[in-house]
Amino acid sequence: TKAGFLPSLVFLWFFILSIPAALAMDKYGRKNLVLLGLVFTLIATFIPILSFTETTCYITFILLGVGNTILQVSLNPLITNVVSGKQLSSFITGGQFIKAISSFTGPLIVGYFSLYYGSWEKSFYVYTAITSLSLVWLFFTKIEETLLEEKTASFSKIIGLLNNPNIFLSFLGILCVVGLDVGMNTVTPKLLIERVGLAKEAATYGASWYFAARTIGTVFGIFLLAKFSEKSFFKINMMVVGIALIGLFFVQEQIVILGLVSAVAFASSSIFAVIYTLAIKSQPLLTNEISGLMITGVAGGAIVPPLMGFATDAVGSQQGSITILLFCSAYLLFCSFKLNATT
Asked: If you write DSSP's letter for every residue of 277-342 in order, what string do you get?
């Protein structure tokens, strides 16, 4: 129970701090907020090096959640001051690729320190070094922030953006795409246990297939989004996701399950960047406010998995979980036709 609670300490802050971070970004600037997020992250990675206890673990995860929320809110708007609007989806997808690489290599780093140093906590030295490098690099990098909006943002103004149908659809889309991502990562090992009979330890490698396919998908997304429109890319990929999820209702063979899981990961890997970009393009003068609202939707990672658990208990199999994920993908397919970047 305690181990399962730890990720919630991270996701919780997306719900609490995203809008306040957007307001602070409006007041203090995008680069300064990114630097602040890196400072919180640096402190979080340094604590386990000094003291590794249950209490310091909770403190570390809380600080990681605060830092990650600030970074996700402020970093993408900062990118708009570096690249043109036409390249925005491609560059944000590039960021998703780096994140996917981190997810894929994280367990390998932990395993290396466990095997050769007898202490996986020493892996935090790596994270501290990388965060320090990012902090120093950005601090000395000159970025001209274009003043696109008046400094009149407020909590009510940001919430009021939901009255815009395009923003409302985008917000729910972020909830669903993050929920789909976290949910697929959770259900893949359970499918292998339930249908193939794999032991729990052996089934966890299914998550590696998911992360590998997601990483490859972001690479392709970087190039495809630079050539094709976001909406066309969105529609085609969500059709692939829907077909793959329907297939997961019926298949029993291990290799087919892994193939369909990989298809979902590959096709959905760049959708977060697409939805975010379409939302920004719909109201470019409110980039900071929209970013705060969209990143609040990352809390979907804490909403969808419990719903999957309830559905699984209700039907007595992982088909319940897949049903919830199929609802998420159906909504995202709906969004791909309804979202309009020009309204």
From this structure: HHHHHHSGGGHHHHHHHHHHGGGHHHHHHHHHHHHHHHHTSTHHHHHHHHHHHHHHHHHHHH--TT
DSSP-based three-state secondary structure for 148 = coil
| Predicted TM-score (pTM) above 0.85 | no
Residues 6+ apart with CB under 8 A from 39: 67, 135
CA 297 to chain centre: 10
User: Considering only CA atoms, which of 266, 296, 264, 265 is closest in space to residue 279?
Assistant: 296
- In this predicted model, what pLDDT tens digit does every residue of 63-115 receive, in sequence order? 999 999 999 888 888 888 888 666 777 787 777 778 778 877 777 787 788 78
CB 311 within 8 A of CB 189: no
**DSSP assignment, residue 195?**
I
Amino acid type, 92: I
Measured distance CA(15)–CA(61) in Å, rounded: 15
User: Is the Cβ–Cβ distance between 179 and 305 less than 8 Å?
Assistant: yes
